[in-house]
Amino acid sequence: MSRKVTKAIFPVAGLGTRFLPATKSIPKEIMTLVDRPLIQYAIDEARAAGIEEFIFVTSRGKGALEDYFDHAHELESNLKKAGKNDLLEILRGTNMDSGAIAYIRQHKALGLGHAVWCARRLVGDEPFAVILTDDVILGEPPCLQQMIEAYQETGGSMVATMEVSPERTKSYGVLDVAEDMGAIVRARGMVEKPKENPPSNLAVIGRYILAPTVMTNLNKLKQGSGGEIQLTDAIADEIEEGRDVFGLRFRGQRFDCGSKAGFLQATVAFGLARDELKDEFADYLADVLSMRRAAE
Ligand code: UTP
């Protein structure tokens, strides 16, 4: 089995209810951190990891997301005429090669596992990556690249993991660890949002490299926890059937941009990471904090 990973699925068909009313008309993935939509961070990470085919699983109301990847010829020629080469460069950085993007529809929001399964014919019999755009990760090298490097050694399937406090495990898929090799762990099992007795404090976050057999498992799955078809269950089935699943403790900082608090934290972190903004923004944050302290 080849270990080259060239395809990535971006499940973007969720309803994004935590960001209503904004998500009434804007896809969550178009919301911006500083000046780039969440989807652009995900695409850049995938490209850096060598992904060549980008498969979006979309739903009703995601038109703005498809438009985002169109070449903006008029805008490009206006910027060119005006000599705004730096902006032109930024704009061109968002262009995708013809034929590199495919859109497939998830007709009903039946869960992440179902969204991934919708892309089965486009993935075929190859290992593939899954990127959840909600999880924005500051990492060097970028998280998916770290995973692909680790996966070249291990094969099997691989999920990105991070340690969370015991009371937060109930919000994540959690690994049951068979063997801890440091950065990489071998999983014995995986439980989605354990209500009690989590098998470890290693939470799975939104980056995966999956064997094609995971699609076969999704085919078989009926409904797992919460009435949705869970990707976690299909990955756990790999282990049940004797195939390897690994977790990678990636190096970097992950922001849960699917939640309001996480989105705001990411805005601060990415704002402070920008040379042209950091001084003014840091001064502002310092002022806000000192005013808050004075008021307490
Ligand atoms: P979430 O659990 O964050 O759900 O999905 P959501 O609908 O996006 O947001 P809230 O909870 O209503 O605010 C995690 C990821 O899985 C995708 C979402 O688009 C998101 O990237 N997803 C989820 C699907 O593509 N289809 C689904 O049926 C469910």
Automatic annotation (TrEMBL):
Record-linked SUPFAM superfamilies: Nucleotide-diphospho-sugar transferases (SSF53448)
Example GO BP: UDP-alpha-D-glucose metabolic process
Keywords: Nucleotidyltransferase, Transferase
Class of this enzyme: transferase
EC identifiers of the protein: 2.7.7.9
PANTHER family attached to this UniProt entry: UTP--GLUCOSE-1-PHOSPHATE URIDYLYLTRANSFERASE (PTHR43197:SF1)
Protein name (database record): UTP--glucose-1-phosphate uridylyltransferase
Native organism: Paracoccus aestuariivivens
